[in-house]
């Protein structure tokens, strides 16, 4: 019985160490990421309420817009399909938002077929190849950037990263961060 107890303690301790290591990796990557001069900005999709971008998506779009306005990239790829409860695709909602901000339509490239982050990046890479783009800045919430970076590397996108932290929704940010820990572990194990 004592051996069984030691095994349980070891497994629990290993779980704590792995969880902490993943959490530190997610936090430090998001905190230290900075966009670099690129051909395009890829804004990863998030929920749309009917036709209105959710607060998380609005902050992502604003960050993509900032990078575009400051000359980090000439084009913005808005990436995201139409999910449950969404009247239009996430990409269409982002495109409309950017046009309202004054971005000319010719600088916005819509990718509206993807349902997951991996699909966002695979489809965006195809667009990049078709346009002759070699480097991108990927925009998402800070907690999402570590896993997005591994996916970008897997699909062959040369990228830097720029993240947002949606301060009015700190509880949602915390929940997203916590959910990202098993998500990152799953990626390391299954590669998806």
From TrEMBL:
Start and end residues of each DUF218 domain: 39-168
Pfam families: DUF218 (PF02698)
InterPro entries hit by this protein: Cell_Envelope_Assoc, DUF218, Rossmann-like_a/b/a_fold
Protein source organism: Clostridium liquoris
One of the GO BP terms on file: peptidoglycan metabolic process
Protein name: Vancomycin high temperature exclusion protein
Residue runs in coiled coils: none
Gene Ontology annotations for the cellular component aspect, listed alphabetically: plasma membrane
Top-level lineage group: Bacteria
């Amino acid at each position: 019985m004592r051996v069984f107890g030691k095994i349980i303690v070891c497994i629990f301790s290993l779980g704590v160490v792995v969880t902490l290591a993943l959490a530190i990796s997610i936090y430090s990557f998001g905190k230290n990421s900075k966009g670099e001069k690129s051909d395009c900005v890829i804004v990863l999709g998030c929920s749309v309420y009917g036709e209105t971008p959710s607060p998380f998506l609005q902050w992502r779009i604003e960050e993509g817009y900032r990078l575009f306005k400051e000359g980090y990239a000439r084009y913005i790829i808005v990436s995201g399909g139409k999910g449950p409860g969404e009247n239009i695709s996430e990409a269409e909602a982002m495109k409309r938002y950017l046009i309202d901000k004054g971005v000319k339509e010719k600088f916005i490239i819509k990718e509206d077929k993807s349902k997951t982050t991996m699909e966002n990046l695979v489809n965006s890479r195809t667009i990049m190849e078709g346009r002759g783009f070699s480097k991108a800045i990927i925009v998402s919430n800070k907690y999402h950037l570590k896993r997005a970076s591994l996916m970008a590397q897997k699909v062959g996108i040369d990228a830097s990263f720029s993240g947002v932290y949606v301060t009015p929704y700190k509880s949602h940010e915390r929940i997203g961060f916590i959910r990202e820990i098993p998500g990152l572990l799953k990626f390391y194990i299954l590669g998806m």
